[in-house]
Amino acid sequence: MSVEKKKILTGAFALGIGTFTAKLLGAIYRVPLTRILGGTGIGLYQMVFPIYAVLLDFAGAGAPSALARLIASGDKTDREKRAYDYLTVSIRVFTVLGVFFSLFMFAFSKRIASWQGDENAYKAYMLLSPSVFLVCIISSFRGYFQGMMNMKPTAISQIVEQTVKLIFGLMFSYMFMSDKTNAAAGAVLGITLSEAVTALWLYAVYLRRRKKLSLLFTFDAENFFSRAGKLIATAFPVTLIGVMLPLSNVADSFIIVNVLKGYTSDATALFGLLSGVAMTIVGLPVAVCYGIATVAVPAVSGAGGEREKNANAVKTILLTLAFSVPCAVILFFFAPEIIGFLFRSLDDAEKSVAANLLKILSPAVVFLSLLQTENAVLIGKNRLYAPVLGMFAGILTKVALDLILVRNPIINIYGGAVAVIACYFVADLINLLPIFLKKRESGAVYESKPVENRQFGGS
């Protein structure tokens, strides 16, 4: 086995296990949380996340992939210095964005919740708002380690994040369980605390690494704007890729809840079963494949030529399919048992709806896992805007099907699940073509050449 293949497999395995463990903790967390909050409370809890995810993407969720690509490309002898410089730039740039969007989320919490159809979610928005800033710091450190092909800090930080959220989210929600609005807000407060702990932990790991390797670099302030421009230029299309799916989830939270309210009083609870129960379970196997996708960015961007880039791309895609297909089959055939085991607090009617949703959504394990790997490969190959087209087409399909299917009382919430499947499937098909098309390197924004030496110099 080649050294490069070992790096891909080792990195994907480490991050896959860490992400899966974190998602498993998240799923376990949902069991008592659902019992405490009930259908309406979990619906309020879920309503804040589409908007939150969009603000995260605008504020800097594209930082990890952008940093990983910039650090991994270019001369390997200067990688340590390049990583330090880009990390410093990233923290400064994305901190400003993070603070701005945190304040935006706090200031407009009531208005956003009202537009979504349930003003009771405004407290959750207010308590979650500091997380936008904190995640910007977390994303910068994760991108730094991923660019160095060290996936362990990211993997462990995800487990730290979920553990803190589980402990304090349950504690706060339990303290206010007599009021579902305050209980949902308390669960969200646990998330904000978990992001603060995770940011501090990653910073401590970084300081320990610098001390161990005696990395005494000084920041080259003269080239700050040049590097900031490169970072933003790389992060911007990655942000577009990342923000489009949360935007479609925002559309879901507006369309599905408001359309369902036209013929049922359980609109918020049904939305909670789709997004907070069925999609949570789908996210478990997808989380493992996220490790493969994350490794794909530096593995492809750091490859020596187009043939090696394509070879690494094929390896990551095949690894994704090898894991995701069996998981989708398991979810389809054992949906009632999985729902019954993980969400015992749901009543029989809710369990039945959730199991049917999970069966419909089971192919999403394959389509969503493949989509995140395809997006990572395209970013690694410097086709930064190629995934945007696929995502845009998929989202248009999803919104159209939401409006058509959910409006039908017979199809009901199941129309939302069908729309999710169609979204990922369309995006996957459109993404496949540019992955293996040849591209003239002269048109690339960044070229894998030793030009980085002239900017950073030896150290």
Account of the 3D structure:
This protein has 459 residues and is mainly alpha-helical. The chain is 82% helix and 0% strand. It contains 17 helices and no strands. Helix 1 packs across helix 9, helix 4 crosses helix 5 and helix 6 packs parallel to helix 8. The longest helix is centred in the first third of the chain and has 59 residues.
Percent range for β-strand residues:
under 5%
Secondary-structure element string: HHHHHHHHHHHHHHHHH
Overall geometric form: globular
Total separate domains? 1
Average pLDDT number: 83
Give the biggest beta sheet.
none
**What's the total number of strands?**
0
CA radius of gyration is 22 Å
**What is the tally of helical segments?**
17
> Segments where pLDDT lies below 50 for 5+ residues?
440-459
What's a quick, concise take on this entry?
The chain has 459 residues and is mostly helical. 82% of the residues lie in helices and 0% in strands.
Output the keywords.
459 residues; mainly alpha; 82% helix; globular; disordered C terminus
Write the SSE topology.
Layout: H1 3-61, H2 63-72, H3 79-107, H4 109-116, H5 122-128, H6 130-147, H7 152-175, H8 180-213, H9 224-260, H10 267-301, H11 306-333, H12 335-342, H13 348-361, H14 364-380, H15 386-406, H16 414-435, H17 452-456
Helix pairs in contact: 1-3, 1-5, 1-6, 1-7, 1-8, 1-9, 1-10, 2-3, 2-6, 2-9, 2-10, 3-6, 3-9, 4-5, 5-8, 6-8, 7-8, 9-10, 9-15, 10-11, 10-13, 10-14, 11-14, 12-13, 13-16, 14-16, 15-16
